Amino acid sequence: MSQYPGVDAEGFIQSLPDQPLQAAFSPLVDELRAMLSRRFPALLDGLYLYGSVARGDARPGTSDLDVTLVLAWAPSPEERQRLEQTRQALEARHPEVSKIDFDVGVLSDVLAPDNRYRWGFWLKHQCRCIWGNDLGLRFEPFRPSRTIALALNGDFPQVLEGYAQQLEQSREPLQQQRLQRAAARKALRSANLLRGEQERGWPTTLQEHAQLLTAAEPGMAEYAAFFLKQAYVPQGSVNEFVQRLRAYSALLAGESAG
Predict the structure, then answer these.
(1) Are 194 and 213 in contact (CB under 8 A)?
(2) Residues in domain Polymerase nucleotidyl transferase (predicted)?
(3) How far apart are CA 8 and CA 15, in angstroms?
(4) Domain 23-143 part of CATH 3.30.460.10
């Protein structure tokens, strides 16, 4: 057993455990698999779960259902609309999750050599294939590296600013809460950019990312605690959240560039 979190005895990043899904989410996953494979039998190359449901530590009524779809070709506007309609229909029927997210990739992009540290790592270590071709089997295990952290979250300034602008424009409380949760989770996961190249562990949960942030930059401990709370139960004013999000993004950009 490894002495470092998130890695196995040989130093490779741990993959998700091969275990049954939590009973509370099995009906939703069964319907998701059946509906997407029936409606998009040619377009869909593979269907994967990631996040808390895939790991087996989801909270009914609070956690999201995070889904990666690898498509055989770039979808047309009509196909994108049908995918979104399917997502919305599933979300409306299943209150056991707070929302359903589709993360879409195209097969040619997923297998491109330049995307090895993003898509290759993602499918190998962060996803569970529940239908179709398991592309994760094509990749060898990865060891922790800042290269992977950059591939996954190097876009954080643009993504966090996008969330900030959407929050400023939104007037719907439910949408605001969803945006706050998503932004808080991206903010925490982006803290992995502060890792040293020689660090051997790999954070998996939001709590582990918050711990990494606090250990790497003690002066940002308040941000770690704030975003960890917001990632589950958003509270406080939207304006305050946006201000903190932008301040954190600027600090992280400066620290991670050093």
Answers:
(1) yes
(2) 30-91
(3) 9
(4) yes
Sign of CA dihedral 205, 168, 90, 104: negative
CA distance 152 to 68: 14
Residue 46, H or E segment: strand 44-50
Q: Given this model, what pLDDT does residue 258 score?
A: 63
The pTM score is 0.90
Average pLDDT over residues 17-31: 95
Which residues in 58-206 belong to E strands, given as ranges? 65-71, 100-106, 127-132
Q: Residues, the chain, total?
A: 258
Reported as a single tens digit per residue, the pLDDT across 176-227 is 999 999 999 999 999 999 998 888 999 988 999 999 999 999 999 999 999 9
Q: Phi first, then psi: give them for residue 49, nearest 5 degrees.
A: -105, 145
Domain boundaries, the chain: 23-143, 150-256
Long-range contacts of 252-257 (CB under 8 A, 24+ apart): 252/156, 252/187, 252/190, 252/191, 252/193, 252/194, 252/220, 253/156, 253/157, 255/194, 255/216, 255/217, 255/220, 256/190, 256/193, 256/194
**Coil/strand/helix, residue 253:** helix
- Alpha-helix residue ranges (DSSP H) falling in 154-237: 156-169, 173-189, 206-216, 221-230
SS3 210: helix
Burial 96-117 (b: 16+ CB within 10 A, else e): bbbbbbbeebbbeebbeeebbb
pLDDT digits (tens, 9 = 90+) for 125-182: 999 999 999 999 999 999 999 999 999 999 999 999 999 999 999 999 989 999 999 9
